[in-house]
Amino acid sequence: MVKHNKKPVHSSNKAKPLVLITLVVITLIVALFIITTKQEEKAKEPAQFSKQPSLLNQPTLGNDDASVSVIEFGDYKCPSCKSWSERIYPQLMKDYIDTGKIKFAYINVLFHGEESQLASLAAESVFAQDPQAFWTYHKALYAAQPAQANHDESWITQESVLDMAKTNIPQIDLIKLEEDIKASKALPEINIDSALVEQYNVQLTPTIMINGIVLDDPFDYNKIKELIDQELEDNK
């Protein structure tokens, strides 16, 4: 009987599918890494809007004709907003508002419900009577906010907002102010602010916007200065 020698099976033939599978897996991993990295980089980029919020009839400070506008979306019940008003705002005032380099505006956010709305109604009613008195009252509202540990307690009432006006802006017509607050006379202005909050997808307070660019960290004053200075240079 003649024995037929079996042809040897080359291991390379068996290895080819394994190599192809390995290459496909590596390619998928690399592609996934690139996509994830790009998404993370995009997420880190500050939100930027081509059109800024209208500041018509909004409380503003500084130079009305300035090429740079800084907008704070804030809530009088928000502890972080109180902190921003005490830590960052005074620096901004000294460096850019008092020097006429920028226009600063405040837009109401009502994340804390009825008390947020009451404080905003009171502030807007003061603004309607005396735009300059608004900023004194604005500061008084934040100063009256309790310590952060107790910020959820009720402290904004009809009585308290009137007392703050009487103490800090005695020139205001308190009788008219009380009537305007009770009648929610400034509600249309509050509704305009709420529409802007929704339009610009404001999720946190304070949110700081500089010429349409939303800052990732509103407490990074170096970044605020850098962005303002860049915008001033670009708009010469």
From TrEMBL:
GO terms for molecular function: oxidoreductase activity. The chain crosses the membrane at residues 15-35. Residues 57-229 form the Thioredoxin-like fold domain. Keywords: Disulfide bond, Membrane, Oxidoreductase, Redox-active center, Signal, Transmembrane, Transmembrane helix. Belongs to the thioredoxin family. DsbA subfamily. This is Dihydroneopterin aldolase. The lineage of its organism: Bacteria, Bacillati, Bacillota, Bacilli, Bacillales.
